[in-house]
């Protein structure tokens, strides 16, 4: 079955212009809107170009086109779908520097982290294209064969946050298409640019209606989650919004995958190299200015593995090394260079938007109100962008906001502990369960502690080593289900059991 892309003759296509004309795509065509809006570059608050604001009629049109496209796309043999998906990855790769620069200007992250996110966005597509979902033979005897297989669900709506606009888009597009679904991508209104260009580029590889985009305001998400024609929601965002998504999706029993917030602890035992571990822990606590991160080191040593990190949000350090650890942590944090991510030498960019900036500021207000001790940082200096000085709070009370809530900005609490049992109990004392890490030279202790932590992802002597081949998801209120890896692909499928009876029914 030959795949007929929405935009034909791609071999002769001119390169996609990533700097102008941000459009939404419905049924393979540009779908202009009467209203437009724009994002801001968070480093200087300059307006970025206009993007469409979708109407409810646009949602209806996209869902109708998706349903029609699903009829044929779901029947395209897997190997052909995979070939098209890999060709799409190659096309993104050819534009990687342009996508990287667009990401910096809309999201604010510094060059090395933007490089890493862009590379991961591409390698995640390729990685997931290497995962097979074979039929499982459950039973085979003279009477019958029983098989389970995975069938596509239908129309997927991908709802994406502002912290990883590129990776979290391809991380949903690839598995949806590989498993035979069609997808409507809704980027965050704060960071719509990379997502819209990814979908425009996809028209050169996929038939009309297979990959569509809708760009809108705060109405758009609820329109998608409540639309009876949408079959599955793949959502990444905050826990509060995730609960709304699930409530809305329940009306038509849509499938949901929810990747939500976290409050990740690091547990540092006394046998570590204090300076080396303080440097790493600081790195994982503050990268992407506390808004989830990708490290600055070259990541893609192997094609399919990469290291991405979400932030450490609570730092538990054994009391016997607390003072030297604090001094080392402060030294490393104070060496960071804060500024416009597009400039070389900048290690930390701004937070992404005014809403987040105002929220993080409330934690800084609490420093004085609650009498928290500051180990470093502690003030927000006036600047043209959403910049916040990386801040460490020295042993705040265990029930303070800074310990209990996810600030999602560059401010972390440094805490002490005495015994292994106590720190496990405190690390688990949260309704979040995204990740956790254990830092020690005693690997048997590390393994013992790791197995008692309640989170979807546990690391030893690192934080947030990820792979497109491994499932990623949260426990408790950090999410439902997982994305990536074989489990992630299965989340885009229904399970079908076939009972193949070998006896022909005859009259008795
Ligand atoms: P958010 O929940 O405010 O928004 C996420 C997306 O949902 C956006 O596209 C937004 O427009 C849309 N949305 C908002 N209200 C909606 C509604 N009622 N129905 C449907 N869609 C709606 O989150 P954010 O502020 O963009 O992102 C930050 C949050 O995302 C943090 O809490 C962070 O921890 C979480 N996050 C989790 C992961 C993970 O993998 N678990 C990864 C990245 C970010």
TrEMBL record:
Family: Belongs to the aldehyde dehydrogenase family.
Keyword Oxidoreductase applies: yes
Enzymatic reactions: an aldehyde + NAD(+) + H2O = a carboxylate + NADH + 2 H(+)
EC number(s) recorded for this UniProt protein: 1.2.1.3
PANTHER family: ALDEHYDE DEHYDROGENASE-RELATED
SUPFAM superfamilies xref list: ALDH-like
Major enzyme class: oxidoreductase
Highest taxon of source: Eukaryota
Keywords assigned: Oxidoreductase
Record-linked InterPro entries: Ald_DH/histidinol_DH, Ald_DH_C, Ald_DH_CS_GLU, Ald_DH_N, Aldehyde_DH_dom, LUC3-like
Annotated protein name in UniProt: aldehyde dehydrogenase (NAD(+))
PROSITE patterns attached to this UniProt entry: ALDEHYDE_DEHYDR_GLU
GO MF: aldehyde dehydrogenase (NAD+) activity
Active site: 259
Residue ranges annotated for the Aldehyde dehydrogenase domain, each copy included: 36-300, 306-497
């Amino acid at each position: 079955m030959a795949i007929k892309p929405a935009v034909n003759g791609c071999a002769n296509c001119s390169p996609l212009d990533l700097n102008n004309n941000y459009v939404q795509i419905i049924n393979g065509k540009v779908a202009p809107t009467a209203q437009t809006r724009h994002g801001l570059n968070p480093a200087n608050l300059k307006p970025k170009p206009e993007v469409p604001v979708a109407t409810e009629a646009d949602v209806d049109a996209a869902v109708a086109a998706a349903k029609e496209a699903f009829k044929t796309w779901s029947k395209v043999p897997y190997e052909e779908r995979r070939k098209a998906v890999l060709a799409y990855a190659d096309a993104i790769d050819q534009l990687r520097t342009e996508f990287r620069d667009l990401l910096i200007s809309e999201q604010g992250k510094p060059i090395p982290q933007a490089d890493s996110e862009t590379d991961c966005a591409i390698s995640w597509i390729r990685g997931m294209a290497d995962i097979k979902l074979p039929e499982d033979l459950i039973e085979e005897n003279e009477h019958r064969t029983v098989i389970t297989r995975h069938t596509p669900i239908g129309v997927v709506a991908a709802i994406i946050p502002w912290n990883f606009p590129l990776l979290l888009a391809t991380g949903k597009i690839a598995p949806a298409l590989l498993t035979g679904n069609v997808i409507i991508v809704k980027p965050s209104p704060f960071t719509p640019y990379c997502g819209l260009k990814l979908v425009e580029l996809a028209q050169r590889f996929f038939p009309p209606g297979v990959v569509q985009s809708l760009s809108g305001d705060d109405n758009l998400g609820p329109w998608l989650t409540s639309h009876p024609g949408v079959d599955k929601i793949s959502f990444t965002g905050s826990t509060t919004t995730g609960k709304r998504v699930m409530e809305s999706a329940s009306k038509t029993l849509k499938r949901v995958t929810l990747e939500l917030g976290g409050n990740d602890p690091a547990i540092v035992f006394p046998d570590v190299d204090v300076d080396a571990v303080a440097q790493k822990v600081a790195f994982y606590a503050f990268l992407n200015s506390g808004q989830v991160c990708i490290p600055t080191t070259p990541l893609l040593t192997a094609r399919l593995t990469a290291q991405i990190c979400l932030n450490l949000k609570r730092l538990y350090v054994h009391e016997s090394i607390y003072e030297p650890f604090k001094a080392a942590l402060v030294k490393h944090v104070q060496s960071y260079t804060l500024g416009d991510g597009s400039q070389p030498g900048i290690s930390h960019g701004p937070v992404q938007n005014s809403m987040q900036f105002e929220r993080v500021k409330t934690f800084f207000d609490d420093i004085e109100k609650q009498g928290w001790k500051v180990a470093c940082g502690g003030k927000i200096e006036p600047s043209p962008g959403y910049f916040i000085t990386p801040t460490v709070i020295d042993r705040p009370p265990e029930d303070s906001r800074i310990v209990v809530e996810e600030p999602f900005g560059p401010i972390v609490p440094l805490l002490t502990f005495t015994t292994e049992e106590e720190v496990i109990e405190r690390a688990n004392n949260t309704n979040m369960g995204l990740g956790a890490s254990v830092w020690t030279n005693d690997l048997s202790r590390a393994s013992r502690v790791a197995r008692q932590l309640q989170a979807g992802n546990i690391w030893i002597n690192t934080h947030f080593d990820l792979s497109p081949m491994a499932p990623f998801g949260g426990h408790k209120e950090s999410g439902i289900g997982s994305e990536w890896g074989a489990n992630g692909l299965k989340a885009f499928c229904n399970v079908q059991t076939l009972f193949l009876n070998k006896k022909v029914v005859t009259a008795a």
